[in-house]
Specification:
By secondary structure, the chain is an alpha/beta fold. The chain has a single domain, classed as Alpha-Beta Complex (Spore Coat Polysaccharide Biosynthesis Protein SpsA, Chain A), CATH 3.90.550.10. It has a 5-stranded mixed β-sheet with strand order 2-1-3-6-5, sandwiched between helices. The protein has a 3-stranded mixed β-sheet with strand order 4-8-7. The two termini are 31 Å apart.
Amino acid sequence: MKSMESNKAIVNIAVASENSWYHSGQKRLLESLKNQGENADFLFERHEHPKFLTPYADKIHAIYQAYKKGYTKILYLDCSIQAVRPLDDIWAYINENGYYLYESGYNCAQTCNDKSLNAYGITRDEAQSIYECASNVFGIDCETQRGKDFVEKIFASISTGAVYGHKFPNEEQRLQESQDTRFLHHRQDQSVISLVAGLYKFSLEREGHFVSRWENAEHTMNENVIFTLKGGY
């Protein structure tokens, strides 16, 4: 239930069996946020089976539901994330810029299948100049029209089928999704979020800005780092 005094929501979803690391990661994430004194509403879901054809569509649906409930500042955090510092700076960043996204290291020609490109009217040549974002930490300000449109457009990927594809395809599956040699794999929610971000010319931060991998100790010592990333433990 939405708090009367809060317009901020942190969304997380774990779609996995009870004994999977996703559930323990979700618990770790929640505890870390509380330890940092975070006062946003926590919209955490847990399902053994996906509602849609892929759990990554469930993730987009969870974000959309937060938007429909009236939250205007929405931050998604994966089960692989834990907070190591207070979240004030990332909320301020979202307020100032209207969103927060950071680079994955790929471009969208590599990580978006033909169906997703066609759904958003983007050619593969155009996709090559769109950096892919990571979707384990991202935020959006839905007080802006651009933010509202962003959420609506990523949600539409469930009905258009743009979210669906093989994250780890064999060669036959890869060729079914695109015969362009630049295409490597489809990152599902990450692919569509990146394409929509590209449509709106969103700028992406570098890894190590607010988010650092657990093993990169030199980044966790950086005073900017709020979240560390460690999954599959």
